Amino acid sequence: MAQPETETPTIPPQRLIALADGVFAIVMTLLVFQLTVPVAAETDRLGSALAEMWPEFLIYVLSFLVLGLFWLIHHLIFDPVERYDTTLIWLNILYLMLASLVPFSTGLFIEHGAVTVTALIYGANMAAVFATAWAIFAYATTGYRLASRDLDSEVRRGATRMGFVYMAVILVAMAISLVSPVAAYVLYGLFVVIVIIFTMVGRADVVMILPGSARDPGPDLSHDV
Amino acid sequence: MAQPETETPTIPPQRLIALADGVFAIVMTLLVFQLTVPVAAETDRLGSALAEMWPEFLIYVLSFLVLGLFWLIHHLIFDPVERYDTTLIWLNILYLMLASLVPFSTGLFIEHGAVTVTALIYGANMAAVFATAWAIFAYATTGYRLASRDLDSEVRRGATRMGFVYMAVILVAMAISLVSPVAAYVLYGLFVVIVIIFTMVGRADVVMILPGSARDPGPDLSHDV
Amino acid sequence: MAQPETETPTIPPQRLIALADGVFAIVMTLLVFQLTVPVAAETDRLGSALAEMWPEFLIYVLSFLVLGLFWLIHHLIFDPVERYDTTLIWLNILYLMLASLVPFSTGLFIEHGAVTVTALIYGANMAAVFATAWAIFAYATTGYRLASRDLDSEVRRGATRMGFVYMAVILVAMAISLVSPVAAYVLYGLFVVIVIIFTMVGRADVVMILPGSARDPGPDLSHDV
Amino acid sequence: MAQPETETPTIPPQRLIALADGVFAIVMTLLVFQLTVPVAAETDRLGSALAEMWPEFLIYVLSFLVLGLFWLIHHLIFDPVERYDTTLIWLNILYLMLASLVPFSTGLFIEHGAVTVTALIYGANMAAVFATAWAIFAYATTGYRLASRDLDSEVRRGATRMGFVYMAVILVAMAISLVSPVAAYVLYGLFVVIVIIFTMVGRADVVMILPGSARDPGPDLSHDV
Asked: What is the pTM of this model?
């Protein structure tokens, strides 16, 4: 992975992004097929049959938001990327492979509920995606291998630090699942909701990097079409 | 959600749109899997077995047109959007999450027919999407937060008014479903057909906003490639 | 559908195309799920179990090529389109809805084999798509409503004539299915193979229109990137 | 397939690529549905039930990487393509049809394990895709029919040679499957891992062509956005 590798890239960036956007659109949409429609025999008590499905609806919403977060992180870490090589392509495919497992992890919960094994796998799935995101960011930005020189080194350090925080939270929740799987799922949910709220109140730095505020500190940062 | 938030955006608009177009393409296509092929045992009376499926085919067409309408609305409300922030990203993901539930709502009807619970859920699904569309439009255009200053305030008021009309129709149909679920579904269908006809005879203002007629009142409004 | 309608369009053409490309990519890919993997009980005679599936593999290939043809036609009829209105949007959604039914029509054959009902539905599905293609082309090009003035009127007439030929072939095959459903499927297959061969030997005029040869009769017609 | 054929193309290249990116995103994502969630009856021994699924997880990873390789090859062979004709369109659709069969080949292994028939079909699927890739590359570059004149003839010969090596490896593995199906799958896996490692250490020439190093031999080869 020495310098000359950057000579092999030949795939325009749009296609990497297009593949990722396509995979995320599909994984998000397919989640709904983990929700099983109650069978016809239950028509006379359909309301309560659906009400009993509340854990399924909750995990559906959680997994959809988790995938939304994976998509947001994917775009934030690819934002400073200016050049591409084959290593990045395979890291990208690894990221998509791990994200594609979310319907399986979700299906485990729906079939078996909040038990230690399902909580561990759900957490491991998230942790693996975050670790891959961190690897992509580190690979692309170390020595500005593939990233723009506009990327502030302070931002780099902040993003790396944030990656560790994410991993720590997930690992703590996984440890808790050994005692209380329900508490682990609650923690996963709280984690995602808190990240979403932070990003919405203008603290995008919680999602690993904050290219906007670092590169354009002025008031005219908003993107025009 | 004060002014400085607009400093965080870093995701180019194309990707938000690409994710939405991908999700809509997939949800529309997956609808067909709610149609169950009659089993081989029925081959000798396959014609009548298919004829008995007419409610399934009707709801398939209705749900496909509903998704077409959701797609049209998504594009109309994003038309005046010029800048992006993280709040808009999460509102967009919410919009897609609710639209992705349509195969589930459709599956409930196919399995249980027109009963109050299925009609209420089908209507609630539509109402939730319309409410999110209204929230996206309000968030983006209030004080021209993310929208072009070309957007006429009259158009803004018209779109908001139209959003209320949509919600009112759906809520009335949901109320009717308590008495006659069949009548509720008929109303959902009439509503969609009427909106389509209005948009086709040049009254796009029925679908929440009418950016074309407001911004380009002249006769040369047609888009050139 | 008078002149002023062209004032309402506000959706950029790329999104109509993106939705169509997405739907076709998904329908093509989902076809494979109509192929049922023989169950584990048959492992000792897996080879012959798969060999007995030859009609399933044949219809898979046929339906994939039919969808490829629908995709090719979609792009050819949208090639001269320069402007968009809401009517075109809904015609496009109708086209996609009918194309999305191909997995259902294919599943009917796989479950029930070549009987009159399945052959009639398979043919009706194709005929409905061709009719919608013809309607889109006629709507867009009549009086150059939405099409480029570069479109030769000779091409327009040729395309319309070709649409009638397509419809006639399918209707004849459907009539034949009343006597011999197998012969109808053979005719569908021959039709698709012949169209593909004609387009490959440079006679793209068999697929409804021939914009290339009509608009650029010189030898430098090839598209550069 | 004489010279004048290049006069028929009218479909812009982006749409061919968009269709391919869409199909690959979907096939990759749908693979996860070949992984069956253990049923609720096994909740008390869920950990060991999942551990027993290790062959399913291994083939999932292998098939995902195989599809990643197909995607990479698709983009490498389309990289020098500058012009399009209908023959290329149908070759592209054939490529996508064969790649779409991977979930079926994967499902055969999951249901029946490593037996000669499943190993032969898995290998035949890969070989058919490689053969189509070779046909696309040969068709597009022979006499610079559709390819850029920048394409070095040395690169052309190297890519053709590489295509033969790929085919030879797969055919040897298929022959080995007659004696030991497990060894054949091990060979498929080793082959994919070795190709990935070679591409990552800067030897992209193992994946059929090396347009980058051939066309831009200088040190500034990296693609800027």
From this structure: 0.85
User: Would you state the pLDDT for residue B13?
Assistant: 65
From B26, B90, B110, residue closest to A29, measured CB to CB: B26
- Residues of A with CB below 8 A from B9's CB? 212, 221-223
In tens, the pLDDT along C78-100 reads 888 887 788 888 999 999 999 99
DSSP 8-state code for residue D147: B
Q: Which chain C residues contact residue D111 at CB under 8 A?
A: 37-40
Give the mutation candidate from A1, A5, A7 for the D interface (greatest D CB count, under 10 A): A7
pLDDT tens-digit profile of B71-94? 989 988 888 888 778 888 899 999
pLDDT given for residue B145 in this prediction: 78
Chains in touch with B (3+ beta-carbon pairs under 8 Å) read A, C
Measure the CA–CA gap between B37 and B84, rounded to whole angstroms.
44
Of A10, A22, A26, the CB nearest to D79: A10
Cross-chain residue pair B199–C93, CB shorter than 8 Å: no
Q: Which long-range contacts (CB under 8 A, 24 or more apart) does A176-185 make?
A: A177/A116, A177/A119, A177/A120, A177/A123, A178/A116, A181/A114, A181/A115, A181/A116, A181/A118, A181/A119, A182/A114, A184/A114, A184/A119, A184/A122, A184/A123, A185/A59, A185/A62, A185/A109, A185/A114, A185/A119, A185/A122
CA distance B179 to chain C (A): 32
Cα separation, C187 vs C169, in Å, equals: 8
Question: Which candidate in C28, C33, C60 is best for mutational testing of the D interface (most D CBs within 10 A)?
Answer: C28
Which of D29, D31, D222 lies nearest to residue A9, judging by beta carbons?
D222
pLDDT band for position D211 (50/70/90)?
very low
The Cα C20–Cα C164 span in angstroms is 24
How many helices (H) and strands (E) would you count in chain C? 9, 0
Residue whose C-alpha is closest to residue D89's, from D4, D8, D207: D8
Task: Give the amino acid at B28.
Answer: M
* C-alpha closest to that of A140 among A183, A76, A197: A76
Print pLDDT tens along chain A (225 aa).
Answer: 333 344 444 445 677 888 899 999 999 999 998 898 888 777 888 999 999 999 999 999 999 999 999 998 998 888 888 877 888 889 999 999 999 999 999 999 999 999 999 999 999 999 999 999 999 998 888 887 787 777 777 778 877 888 888 899 999 999 999 999 999 999 999 999 998 888 777 555 444 443 333 333 333 333 333
Q: Looking at CA atoms only, how far is residue A170 from chain B in angstroms?
A: 22
Chain A partners within 8 Å of D72 (Cβ): 11, 86, 89
Chain B residue numbers with beta carbons less than 8 Å from the beta carbon of C27 are 29
Of D15, D100, D107, the CB nearest to C28: D100
